[in-house]
Amino acid sequence: MAQVVRVEAAAPVALPRPVPGAEPGRVLGLVGPPGLGLTRLGLSLLADPARRGTVAVVDVRGWLCPPAAWEAGVPPERLVVVRCAERDLWGRVTAALLEGLPAVYAEVPPGVQEALLRRLGALARSRRAALILRPLRGGLPVGLAHLNLVGEAVLWEGAGSGHGRITRRRLTLRAAGRGAGGIEQILEVVDDGTDALCVVPRLAAAPAGRAAG
């Protein structure tokens, strides 16, 4: 049975283990369909590495708007966005960024070979770079990510009876992998649409056993 943990993204304290954020030399996977808010979460995880140097986003879909990263806490002067829709070039582009930057958030195009993903993971470890992988279809190879955060559901609040202003988004995640201590956990990230994620370098977990929702 999954352990249940409540995560309040607005708490200004570091996230304790076993649920780390973007760590040097680690791969973090963000898995799930579009529309859950995983991109915003991934960008917020770049905020802490951006304090140490320039960070990069590999934008496969061409959708990313740089202000979204700025709002998530990444200073404009510390952000590089590389648009790369070609699968054959994607691996080389991502590897080049890992060679010189402390953190990279990369959308993964469909059809990328497992061997390439594992080589990128090994490169991230050797360069002590944080690598956040967001596959656009399916998941990641078993054992590649130190921590996998899988989007399970999203709940929008504030638009009653089909109209009105959305005031909050609750994203339910399933955390698994070595970074979760080998114990699957259910997390809830709360985003009120202002600076709930951008002021926090790492998500802050409440005591284990508290039910989400």
Plain-language structure description:
This protein has 213 residues and is an alpha/beta fold. The chain has a single domain, classed as Rossmann fold (3-Layer(aba) Sandwich). Helices cover 19% and strands 28% of the residues. It is built from 4 helices and 11 strands, in the order E-E-E-H-E-H-E-H-E-H-E-E-E-E-E. A hairpin with an 8-residue loop joins strand 9 and strand 10.
List the helices and strands and how they pair.
Elements: E1 3-4, E2 7-8, E3 27-31, H1 38-44, E4 55-59, H2 66-71, E5 79-83, H3 87-100, E6 103-108, H4 114-127, E7 130-135, E8 147-157, E9 168-176, E10 185-191, E11 204-205
Helix pairs in contact: 3-4
What are the salient characteristics of this protein?
4 helices; alpha/beta; Rossmann fold; 213 residues; two-stranded antiparallel ribbon; globular; nine-stranded mixed sheet; 19% helix; single chain
Overall CATH architecture: 3-Layer(aba) Sandwich
- Assembly status: single chain
Overall 3D form: globular
What topology, given as strand order, has the largest sheet? 1-10-9-8-3-7-6-4-5
Low-confidence stretches: 1-19, 195-213
What do the pLDDT scores average to? 80
Largest sheet: 9 strands, mixed
State the order of secondary-structure elements, H for helix, E for strand: EEEHEHEHEHEEEEE
Determine the CATH superfamily: P-loop containing nucleotide triphosphate hydrolases
List the total number of helices. 4
CATH class annotation: Alpha Beta
Distance between the termini: 17 Å
| Overall number of structural domains | 1
CATH topology: Rossmann fold
Let me know the number of strands.
Answer: 11
Strand-residue proportion: 25-35%
Share in helix: 10-25%
Q: What value does the Rg take, in angstroms?
A: 16 Å
Structural class: alpha/beta
